[in-house]
Backbone:
């Protein structure tokens, strides 16, 4: 049985990346990450299984990602397999900031630990076949070392972390998702000069775009 | 009176091309940061344009593997302050329903989807109508706001309608679909 639990792995990631955007997959992953601590830099994906890697990819492609060492997306093995084809898109676009962490226990934890197909799949091999640098991590000390070394290493990268079947008891998390959006958007937007400034994608962003067309390389906000 | 024919549809290739050109004009006006797309035979000239302009550095062009992946990537881009636009076919909207209703809608993410509509008169693919002719009902049942552009809308109104739909998505903080039936 792998020595790492999900909680251990989440705690290591949150500790190593206390200010970087982290997309957290649904269910047990979100609830145990909240035991580690609720943070403005965490996007809690309450459903949408299979989507966190794509969401992380989107964030990593945006100019706002330049402010950060990494954009992290944390998936389970079942979630990764559900959105498996996103590995191909990541490999095509090669976002340097993206770090995809897959916590692999071979089971769907939130629904009662039913087995996934992951034991039959070399997840790192699949990622590498898509052009993504990949690492297998089994020991707690290895996870901390790999995370520590990942800050400045250009991505995209995938860490497949073997975790055991231990699940911590955690309450349901039932916020209004709009609250999660606004908190995370404001965090990504960084410090603003005006308290009235809204996130660029908020009300009027499209209207502003009418008279101020701009291309893909917008000016990133100032570093925090 | 011209002879009745259904082989090529009622509209001429020039009319279809004019509708594609209107969509291109709308895209150029909106100036998205990223355009995420799946292939469409009816929107081929639009996607060819997107690829060419992306090659010039005007925006980033992203070929998708699945529709729901597009909702995830576009949602991440919106959260990070970028301006994505999606182009897909309606026969793939079923793939995107869960992502739209569990992510884009509840998280209030303004997204615009330009969706080519298939399965109507003069459709050549006999397998495509089952889903496509129910897309309006499916979108309505999912409470996904959508607008239709077809032969009843003068081509002069297509570009302004797409731009208005983009503004509507941002004003109402939700995904908006523009169903574009280019063939008739």
Residues:
């Amino acid at each position: 049985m792998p020595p790492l639990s999900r909680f251990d792995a989440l705690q290591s990631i949150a500790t190593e990346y206390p200010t970087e955007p982290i997309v957290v997959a649904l269910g047990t992953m979100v609830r145990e990450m909240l035991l580690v601590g609720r943070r403005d830099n965490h996007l809690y994906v309450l459903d949408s299984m299979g989507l966190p890697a794509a969401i992380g990819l989107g964030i990593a492609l945006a100019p706002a990602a330049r402010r950060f060492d990494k954009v992290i997306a944390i998936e389970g093995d079942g979630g990764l397999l559900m959105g498996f084809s996103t590995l191909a898109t990541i490999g095509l676009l090669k976002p340097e900031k993206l770090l995809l962490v897959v916590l692999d226990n071979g089971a769907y934890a939130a629904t009662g630990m039913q087995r996934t197909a992951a034991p039959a799949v070399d997840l790192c091999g699949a990622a590498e076949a898509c052009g993504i640098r990949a690492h297998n991590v089994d020991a707690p000390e290895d996870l901390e070392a790999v995370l520590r070394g990942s800050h400045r290493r250009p991505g995209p990268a995938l860490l497949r972390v073997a975790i055991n079947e231990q699940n911590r008891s955690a309450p349901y998390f039932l916020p209004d998702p709009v609250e999660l959006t606004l908190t995370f958007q404001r965090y990504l937007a960084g410090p603003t000069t005006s308290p009235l400034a809204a996130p660029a994608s908020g009300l009027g962003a499209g209207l502003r775009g009418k008279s101020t067309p701009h291309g893909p390389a917008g000016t990133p906000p100032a570093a925090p | 009176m011209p002879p009745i024919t259904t082989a090529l549809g009622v509209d001429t290739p020039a009319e279809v091309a004019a509708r594609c050109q209107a969509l291109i004009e709308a895209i150029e006006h909106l100036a998205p940061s990223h355009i995420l797309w799946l292939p469409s035979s009816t929107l081929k000239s639009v996607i060819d344009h997107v690829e060419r302009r992306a090659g010039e550095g005007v925006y980033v062009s992203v070929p998708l593997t699945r529709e729901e992946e597009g909702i995830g990537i576009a949602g991440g881009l919106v959260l990070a302050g970028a301006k994505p636009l999606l182009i897909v076919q309606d026969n793939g909207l079923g793939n995107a329903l869960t992502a739209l209703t569990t992510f884009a809608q509840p998280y209030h993410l303004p997204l615009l989807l330009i969706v080519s509509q298939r399965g109507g008169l003069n459709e050549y693919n006999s397998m495509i109508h089952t889903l496509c002719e129910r897309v309006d009902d499916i979108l309505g049942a999912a409470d996904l706001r959508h607008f239709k552009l077809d032969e009843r809308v003068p081509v002069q109104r297509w570009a302004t309608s797409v731009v208005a739909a983009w503004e509507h998505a941002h004003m109402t903080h939700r995904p908006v679909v523009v169903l574009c039936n280019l063939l008739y």
Observations:
- Chain A touches chain B through 55 residues (CB under 8 Å).
- Chain A is about 35% helix and 15% strand.
- The domain at 6-162 of chain A is CATH 3.40.50.970 (Rossmann fold).
